[in-house]
């Protein structure tokens, strides 16, 4: 299988790419070329999804990608009335429009071969909502809707489509978002039922399972991996 992981330079995407090296030909994309080189992938494409998504669409076609993991994401914290036009465009382009465009490029080959796996990395904020992160929450909620619709559309071709919704994950993005917010790390942990952050490798291992034949009956689902955060308090 030929696997593409977006946003693989660091964090969750990096963990996913390294986990999947064991099961297929992994291709990666991100903005940091040096970081991409260290993964040991079969190939890479340096890409900013707000500007170069067309290049990545061609890369998908050339490498006949049949497992697409839309992981790249952008987070902005702030009141809706303080959001600039540039911020609004950037977050929706990265978090929602780019996945749509990449899926459209990958699906013809998947249909042709009657097999494919699409995994969108969403967020628990797209399930529950997050005050002062409305752009992020709404863009991730859009992924959930996209997943459900495409799961129905592509089911007859043996293509599954699922969303993984992480909660607080111990990554640079996660820690930076704490710095931007109004709560401390300890205060956030206190609100998480398991009293811990999710590790990137937990998300990576779930991706590996969703690619496997054992998960072929799972499609159209939003799977929360959040240490209990989505259940309530």
UniProtKB/TrEMBL annotation:
It holds the Pfam family adh_short. InterPro entries: NAD(P)-bd_dom_sf, Sc_DH/Rdtase_CS, SDR, SDR_fam. One of its GO terms (biological process) is monocarboxylic acid metabolic process. PROSITE patterns: ADH_SHORT. This is SDR family oxidoreductase. It comes from the Bacteria. Belongs to the short-chain dehydrogenases/reductases (SDR) family. Gene3D superfamilies: NAD(P)-binding Rossmann-like Domain.
